[in-house]
DNA sequence: CTGAAAGCGCTAACAC
DNA sequence: GTGTTAGCGCTTTCAG
């Protein structure tokens, strides 16, 4: 069906190797020979077969594998964008898959990507054991982790957000506005970022001599509906919180819905910026960060590893920024 | 570095072919032989090389190429998600790239994907000439287009949204609420969806005997700022529109900003749903559609083509749905 | 400058 | 049940 170099060679009346030289822009081909070859190439519609190319010479496949939770989620799609930008610069393709936070699927994806001989792996790891990766890493597949670190045993680079610092700055902002009864909404404690952000919340309170009141902390909600219900419960307490810190954008939206529904002016600061946060009835104060930058940085580290650079495992911490919009500045009631 | 089947065979004291049989779950291997082979596999950390596998026998690479404008844009990332869901069911990998609406980059991407011998191609085409694809298609690479059709000469399946019908329903909704001076904001006329939506606007007015007033039509703005400026201009007219139809989500946001800034209650219906549309100060009435479904349908069509099904080119039209939320129901002033 | 031969890691087609 | 041989489409020697 598809013509091969042999076919082109036959058509042009030269040897296979000469075609190879022309196709790869090697030197040492007379212009008129090259001309003949190029004519044959377009006459036959020849396309070099990169699969065969990668096979011979243990060549790189010029591809990297990306495992994220879900591309449809803006956080991950921005990571993917950052990765793609760097990949493009290095003439690499990105082969990606969604784990949907399922460890079995994640493992299957990584295994399949290794079977396809991707030159490197970029992974947002789920809460699971990643030791199965060790043989792959030893076998020479570079890997960089994003957003959550793998276990200690895995010696690989990782790019994280400053979760603790970001959460602390959010809660300190609320304290600065006079709040002392501040609720904390965080995702499932199995998730690294949820634990870290909760830790930032604790640290901020402690630093200001405010005891942590566990009845104001809700760990577990991980969607808008769950956060809305949890917030409604908090607002219905005898002594309700005057402010809420929400650990991610879905939790922020849920909290917002509950606060609006209750007709309160409870202050709110959320982790993660989101589109239209400034256009809502109450514009939302957030701890912003830059997922695309995370993707870029991770991809850059990976490329360096792929080029054989041999540093000790890096741990990059990306900064956050508090964006003040209104919801975080309401005074305590 | 990485062990091959030969190495495994040597280690297990069997022939290469026996290893191949075990690795591929073929029948006709004694359990104890299989056992030995499996031990050698884990001892050496062997991973079958899918590159070599695809080469032999003109085998499929079990991958498909996806070319979209930008993964970071929720519209495209949802398409990507739909594609990935179907790919997963068929045990296919997705190799994707962003064209950023640059025809040269799009062409480069498609070419490279063909060189990697993807089994099929899923493309959101930019406004450009796609005839260079014809040889690839003839050479057996299946292709399905999404969101915008390629030129007539390309005989391939395409999955579209009902742009005309959706726009018409939006404008008829405004007419039903008593509006007659309805503005139209649409993207660059080079873009298929922009033209089609503008056509739906015209059709709705004509169907109700309302003459099209070109001074109320703004073609060209393609970001929030541009739409905001265009809308501000419209509102400043001596005889301003009482309602606005915005041709996509960025234009809707821009219009909304301008209307809020002017302190008006101008009615607004937008094409494309977006997150938090219901949480804004004025919840936004929209023409919703389902990008993930577009990705799924396109991927399904592609898989059927890849399986050799030979129907005439299909043209799938996905329905839209008007979601009433408030902004589209204000009466004329 | 150009070409012939070997072989990347695997599977298909046949032996035994 | 198991092994041997050929060869996928290309690049890499090494000769001419």
Unreliably modeled segments of chain A: none
Largest sheet of chain A: 6 strands, parallel
Oligomer: homodimer
Specify the number of helices of chain A: 12
| CATH topology name of the largest domain in chain A | Rossmann fold
Overview of the structural elements:
Two copies of one chain form a homodimer. Chain A is an alpha/beta fold. Chain A folds into three domains: 5-48, Orthogonal Bundle (434 Repressor (Amino-terminal Domain)), CATH 1.10.260.40; 60-161 and 291-319, Response regulator (Rossmann fold, 3-Layer(aba) Sandwich), CATH 3.40.50; 163-288, Rossmann fold (3-Layer(aba) Sandwich). Chain A has twelve helices and twelve strands. The first copy, chain A, has helices spanning 5-12, 16-23, 31-44, 50-55, 74-89, 103-115, 133-138, 163-176, 192-207, 224-235, 249-261, 291-306, and strands at residues 63-68, 93-98, 120-123, 142-146, 157-161, 182-186, 217-219, 243-246, 267-271, 285-288, 315-318, 321-323. In chain A, strands 2-1-3-4-5-11 form a six-stranded parallel sheet, with helices on both faces. The longest helix of chain A is centred in the first third of the chain and has 16 residues, at 74-89. The model of chain A has no long low-confidence stretch (mean pLDDT 95). At the A-B interface, helix 4, helix 5, strand 2, helix 6 and helix 7 of A face helix 4, helix 5, strand 2, helix 6 and helix 7 of B. Chain A binds a DNA duplex (16 and 16 nucleotides) through helix 2 and helix 4.
């Amino acid at each position: 069906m598809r013509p091969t170099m042999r076919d082109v060679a036959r058509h042009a009346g030269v040897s296979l190797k000469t075609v190879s030289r022309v196709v790869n822009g090697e030197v040492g081909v007379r212009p008129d020979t090259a001309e003949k070859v190029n004519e044959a190439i377009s006459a036959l519609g020849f396309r070099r077969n990169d699969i065969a190319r990668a096979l011979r010479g243990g060549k790189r496949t010029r591809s990297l594998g990306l495992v994220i939770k879900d591309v449809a989620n803006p956080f991950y799609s921005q990571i993917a964008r950052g990765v793609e930008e760097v990949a493009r610069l290095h003439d690499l393709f990105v082969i990606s898959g969604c784990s949907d936070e399922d460890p079995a699927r994640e493992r299957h994806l990584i295994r399949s990507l290794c079977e396809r001989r991707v030159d490197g792996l970029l992974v947002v790891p789920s809460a699971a054991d990643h030791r199965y990766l060790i043989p792959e890493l030893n076998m020479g597949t570079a890997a960089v982790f994003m957003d959550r670190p793998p276990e200690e045993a895995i010696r690989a680079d990782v790019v994280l957000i400053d979760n603790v610092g970001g959460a602390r700055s959010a809660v300190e902002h609320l304290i600065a506005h006079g709040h002392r009864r501040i609720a904390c909404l965080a995702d499932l404690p199995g998730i690294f970022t949820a634990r870290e952000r909760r830790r930032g919340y604790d640290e901020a309170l402690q630093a200001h001599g405010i005891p942590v009141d566990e009845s104001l902390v809700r760990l577990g909600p991980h969607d808008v509906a769950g956060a809305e219900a949890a917030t409604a419960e908090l607002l219905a307490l005898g002594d309700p919180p005057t402010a809420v810190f929400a650990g991610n954008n879905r939790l922020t939206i849920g909290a917002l819905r509950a606060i609006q529904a209750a007709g309160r002016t409870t202050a709110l600061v959320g982790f993660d910026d989101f589109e239209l946060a400034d256009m809502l009835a109450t514009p939302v104060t957030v701890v912003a960060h830059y997922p695309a930058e995370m993707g870029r940085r991770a991809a850059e580290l990976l490329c360096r590893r792929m080029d054989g650079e041999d540093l000790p495992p890096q741990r990059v911490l990306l900064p956050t920024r508090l964006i003040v919009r209104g919801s975080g500045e309401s005074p305590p009631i």
